[in-house]
Amino acid sequence: MKTDFDHRNVYKFAIFIIGLQIVVSLVQIIVESLAGFRFYLFSPYFEPWFILMSVITIVVHLILIWYFRIKNIQLHY
Amino acid sequence: MATFVATLAYTLWVYTALSDRELWEFIPKAFIMLLSVGAIYSVSLFTSGTRHKRWLFWVGIIGLSLELSLIALMFWSIYTTSETIPLTIQRITPWFLVALSLTLTFYILNFKEELSLFKNKDNSKPSKLLTGISNTLGIISTIGIIVVLNSGFSEYSWEKGKVARSKLLAGNFEARTYVNIQNDTLRYRLLLPKNYDSNKKYPLVVNLHDGSGVGKDNLIHLQATSTAQLLATDENREKYPSFIFMPQSPSNAGFGGVLNEPDISSLVFEAMDYLEQEYNIDDKRRYVIGMSLGGYGSWHFIGVKPEKFAAAVPICGGGDPVLASKMTNIPIWAFHGKDDKAVPVDLTRNMINAIREAGGSPKYTEFSSGHIIWDKVKNTHGFLDWIFAQKRTD
After folding, report:
1. Rounded CA gap, B69 and B96, in Å?
2. CATH code for the domain of B301
3. A29–B11: do the CB atoms touch at under 8 Å?
4. Cβ separation of B151 and A62 shorter than 8 Å?
5. Which among B48, B112, B342 is the nearest to A15, CB-wise?
6. Is there a contact between B151 and B165 (Cβ–Cβ < 8 Å)?
7. Same domain, residue pair B370 and B260
8. Structural domain for B211, as ranges
9. Do B337 and B250 share a structural domain?
10. Which residue among B4, B203, B242, B363 has its CA within the 20 to 30 Å range from the CA of B95?
11. Are the Cβ atoms of B138 and A9 closer than 8 angstroms?
């Protein structure tokens, strides 16, 4: 059974990963503004970067899903 | 959960679309769908149980307003007839995306607030697993951010340097304009054969630039037409005296062959005819060479005007196999990189197979590389000798 102690660790991790997602998203917007489609089509770094962004996005979503579940937050009005 | 699935689906779809030019036009619509799912999620944040958590309430309100604004901008960009509005929207969209990214800070504030409410604050023992994941992701992300930012700035410098590079390459290329009876204008550069003698016939080489040369300045296509630069060296002008013709396509039209894109091929053919009235051009030795956007154009040119050309060299382009039967009598040497992400190699393979099935015998060289293959092409043994040896016999 999860305790406050476990949750606290996950909360700290959530703060870190969401912060990381913000930084990575801003970098992505900067690079897209600088290089446009050339970055996607010609840069050898695009694919590893894309995978990294996807992993971070997935982790953030999983954390939020976990959070809404433990708080028992559902779509009810 | 719905946003999670939608984000994953969108991410995978965009990745697929990047290697399939036919899907590019649907990217804005897919983005609208993603924003719509995000908007529904935002509504749920300030209307369901989360509305009692102030930071989640506000992330919902602000997120929704940004998502609706972006949806409106995307629709405006897609359906406007104006040429300038999509460009303006393209410029302001990143700022909305920055704002949308920054709304994530509200989640951080929410977690921080709830963290401060936990009991036993001082007895915290960090989770080794989560610390390990955090450290690993942190290190990888730091390296990734440095590399990717460096790559972005390099591309930016390259883009900004187009004019300067083109001015250096201009040399003896004369800037000219052809205007037809409908007032359609073609801007082009022309380099005459060295020591041009009007009593002698010379080949005409049509050099079609890649996508970085589009515009109306009659300049930046100089840096986007590597084939012409190769032919313009002193050595090659001596060895292969010819007219080097470099039309520039505007940003809203290519040379043809790209799905759903208007083209200026007819205007280029008219300009070629015009040049033949002015100069002594050998009508049995007209060649077309092009790379990327120009590769598409090369395939298109010999598909719609096969009688006009003695040979074609489409480099990392793509064609319409339906036109293959018209190309069977034209010597073709096509090149492509098998790992090309910008123009999939199948587009050339399909053309080669279709022409062979129709009875032609095109040459095809495939490199183990991506889209940037010019250095390999120009170093291919006998490349220029092969082109200038071709002559129509009819």
Report:
1. 8
2. 3.40.50.1820
3. no
4. no
5. B112
6. no
7. yes
8. 162-389
9. yes
10. B4
11. no
Q: Are residues B213 and B113 in the same domain?
A: no
Pair (B235, B381) in one structural domain: yes
Q: How far apart, in Å, do the first and last CA atoms of chain A sit?
A: 29
Min distance B95 CA to chain A CA atoms (Å): 9
Q: Which residues of B touch A70 (CB under 8 A)?
A: none
Q: Locate tokens 């290697």: which residue? A: B19
What is the reported pLDDT for B125? 75
Measure CA B291 to chain center: 11
How do residues B135-167 score in pLDDT, each as one tens digit? 999 999 999 999 999 999 998 999 899 999 999
The DSSP code for B20 is -
**Same domain flag for B93 and B211:** no
At B5 the three-state DSSP class reads helix
Note the pLDDT of residue B209: 97
Q: Give yes or no for a contact between B178 and B189, defined as CB atoms under 8 angstroms apart.
A: no
Interface test with B, best of A3, A32, A52 (most B CBs within 10 A): A52
Please report whether residue B73 resides in a domain: yes
Give the helix ranges, DSSP H, for chain B: 2-18, 27-47, 54-79, 84-102, 104-115, 128-160, 162-170, 226-231, 234-239, 265-278, 293-304, 346-357, 374-378, 383-389
* B168 and B113 fall within a common domain: no
pLDDT confidence of residue B162: 92
Residues B363, B259, single domain; the answer is yes
Number of neighbours of residue B173 by Cβ within 10 angstroms:
23
For residue range A2-39, list pLDDT tens digits in order.
Answer: 555 578 889 999 999 999 999 999 999 999 888 887 88
pLDDT score at B65: 95
Q: Which helix (H) or strand (E) holds B248?
A: strand B243-248
Of B7, B133, B134, the CB nearest to A61: B7
B25-61 confidence digits (pLDDT tens): 788 888 898 899 889 989 988 888 888 889 999 999 9
Number of domains chain B is built from: 2
Residue B212 forms part of a structural domain: yes
- At B122 the pLDDT is 58
Q: Do residues B295 and B258 lie in contact, with contact meaning Cβ atoms separated by under 8 Å?
A: no
Task: Give the relative orientation of helices B2-18 and B27-47 as an angle to the nearest 10 degrees.
Answer: 170
Any residues with CB less than 8 A from the CB of B161 and at least 6 apart, and which?
none
Length of chain B: 394
Task: Tell how far CA A19 is from the center of its chain.
Answer: 8
Residue B281 within a domain: yes
Q: Give the gap in angstroms from C-alpha B127 to the nearest C-alpha of chain A.
A: 6
